[in-house]
Every structure is written in structure tokens, then in C-alpha cells.
Amino acid sequence: MQVIPISDAEFAQFQRFIFEAAGISMADAKKALVTGRLSKRLAAHQLGSFGAYFKLLSSRQHPDEVQMAVDLLTTNETYFFREIKHFEFLRTQALAARSRPQPYRVWSAASSSGEEAYSMAMVLADCMQTTPWDILGTDISTRVLEGARRALYSMERGRHIPPEYLKRFCRKGTGNYDGHLLVDTQLRSRVVFRHANLNAPLPELGKFDIVFLRNVMIYFNNDTKREVVARVISTLKPGGYFCVGHSESLNDITQAVQMVMPSIYQKAA
Hints:
The protein is α/β, with parallel strands linked by helices. It has two domains: 8-73, Chemotaxis Receptor Methyltransferase Cher, domain 1 (Orthogonal Bundle); 84-267, 3-Layer(aba) Sandwich (Rossmann fold). The protein is built from ten helices and ten strands. Strand 9 (257-261) and strand 10 form a beta hairpin. Helix 5 (84-97) runs parallel beside helix 6 (115-127). It is globular, with a radius of gyration of 20 Å.
């Protein structure tokens, strides 16, 4: 079945859809992205127009398809040890905390395909000695969470892993997996991945020493940013830290945390 190109009115429907589902403000320039990512879903349902697919999503009769559409329309670009200064900061904080009896908890709040969470795990495994620790990774996309749990990546995505960590925490693929790396089983066991939508009330996650929410808020308008940031800050322990992307700021979003260095904020003790 031939698909009719997406119209401006249909594109506006999907702009509203992804905003209501995920709080993401999708620019007009993303029309080609929507077309490319959703065309196969139209074909799968033998639908001839994007309007018909939107009607299917709006019927509330296909919740799995709604999640599929959300998965396809959310951008998930990341790599190991992206923005290295945050991991250096994490290392400093972990070393300072390793004599305490309480578990050290870190949250990768938009974990995508898992590289950020596993980078955190490598740092904590290296620093914490006998101090208990755990890492939670969450994302709105169930598709990328499945990939995160597999922990299989191209070597290109691991190019920023420090050589000693690469040797210690990763296994080099062979045969059909040549050119790939697999995160070590023991390290994988320390990282839990869960589905969570930051644009809705959060499930019970517990309290965290550090939260990373990086390079995500650029997709939110200011009202959504305030709501999301308030939810995330509510999970921070007193004195806990909130790391955002280097191109992002919380200065006009909340007064509940104070900047301690660019892109790193602290909740009052």
C-alpha cells in the first residue's frame, strides 16, 4: 500500500502526541524524522496515511503501538563517558563516600541505551571497595531499555572508555560479534533498568546521592522543564547532586538546588 506523504496538519497531530506523551517539543524541522521513523508502522498496519495511523493511536485500543510510536519518536543518542567531567566529579564524590555504611545510589534518569549507566558503574566499581552501591537507569523508551539490558555495543560507541576500564569491565566480541564489546556480567548485575516517564508522576525509586539528567531538557519547554526538574529533585538526598548537560542550565528553572560548578547543582543539606 502506498503511503501518502505526511501533511502539515498530520505532522501537527504527532507534535501534540509526543508532547503529551513525553513532554517533548518537536520542531517543525522534524517532519522528515517523523516520516522516516513511522512509515514502517503504517506499512505494518496496512494504513495509507499518517492521519489513519494517528487515529489508530488515539483509539486507546493499541497501547503497545502507542509505546512503539513513543519509542520511535524519542531521540536516543549517547556513548560511554560522554561529558567526562561529570564522571570525574562522580569519582571524587564516590571516593569521599566509600567509608560510610549506607549504600551509594546513582540514577541515570534518561539512560537511553545504557552507556551512561554502565559508565557510572565502572567508576563506582573502581572506587567504592566494600561500600555498597547501586545504579538505576530509566528511560521512556522500552526499546532502548531492552538494548541496555543486553549491554552489547559497537566498539565505536566504546571509544571513550578508559583503556584500563575497557580491559577490566568489557569483553571483546568474536565471530558474529566481531567489532563489538559486551559489558561484563558482574558489572551488569549492579545496574537495574526500569521504564519511567519523567513527564508523569514517578514510580517509587528511592533516594539518590547523584542524578544525571543530561542533554534531555533541550527538548522540553520551560513549563515542562520545571515540572520534570521538580520530580527529579524530590528523589535527591539532602546534599545530593544533580548533573545536567554542559549546554543546559537550571538557573531559571528552580531554586531548590544551587550550582556548585557549571552543569552541576547541589540540593541543600
